[in-house]
Amino acid sequence: VYNRTLTITYAANGGTGTVGNTTKTIYLNSNSTTTSDQAVTLSNTTYTKTGYTFSKWTIGSTDYNKGASYNPSLAYNAAAANWTITATVKWIPTNYTIGYTLNGGTNGSGNPTNYNIETNTITLADASKTGYTFTGWTGSNGTTPQKGITIPVGSTGDRKYTANWSKDTYEITYVMNGGTNATSNPASYQVDTPTITLADPTKTGYTFTHWTGSNGT
Question: Which residues contact 27 (CB under 8 A, 6 or more apart)?
């Protein structure tokens, strides 16, 4: 029986940080096979990469969890006195959420609820609300309402947006046909205006019979 030193180095694959090498003495028979199960424990320490989460260590074509056991006999080179193996990080994009506070409105069609660093640039559609005009989003973009908010490809982090509204005002137009409108009849209303009941107009020598128009013919 004789021995060899196995060193496992770690490749960051675009990440940052320090992961120390793993070394172990492997005992071999005269035919250059391991004498018993002498598995090596892969590092529990990993690199970091903005916008990505550690997925696996990859050795050759096989993936391993951090802290998993690796059997060195799978890659032993009998011609080498000692040997080195590289475990490379496999990254997956980190998923971030996009939250919306709509204040009674309906979100714009296609506005996503999540994204990652590789997602194509997102442009937020306007929300809608009956009786109101959408003035813009506030939140992760700041306190000034803005339309057409973009989340560029390469962005990271959870985001929150609040829909802002201005109340619409609707005009009421009267065609009096020679009559005089009642002073209580309003010239406009909004979605939350209390119920309006139109008062009858007057015309000397005539009796008011009815209104036509938005109510029908």
Answer: 1, 2, 3, 34, 35, 36, 38
pLDDT below 50 — which residues of the chain? none
What is the DSSP pairing of strand 159-167 with strand 96-101?
A: parallel
The angle at the Cα of 44, spanning 38 to 45, to the nearest 5 degrees, equals: 130
CA dihedral 192, 134, 116, 153 (to 10 degrees): 180
Q: What is the dihedral of CA 51, 55, 58, 62, to 10 degrees?
A: -140
Q: Are strands 40-41 and 52-59 parallel, antiparallel or unpaired?
A: unpaired
Residues 87 and 93: their CA atoms lie apart, in Å, by 19
Task: Give percent helix, percent strand, percent coil of the chain, each to the nearest 5.
Answer: 0, 45, 55
Residue 72, helix vs strand vs coil: helix
Segment holding 146, helix H or strand E: strand 142-146
Span 100-130, pLDDT tens digits = 999 999 999 999 999 999 999 999 999 999 9
Separation between Cα atoms, residue 50 and residue 171, nearest integer Å: 54
Q: Which residues pair with 49 in a beta bridge?
A: 52
The DSSP symbol for 103 reads T
Do the beta carbons of residue 43 and residue 70 sit within 8 Å?
Answer: no
pTM: 0.82
Phi, psi (5° rounding) for residue 70? -120, 130
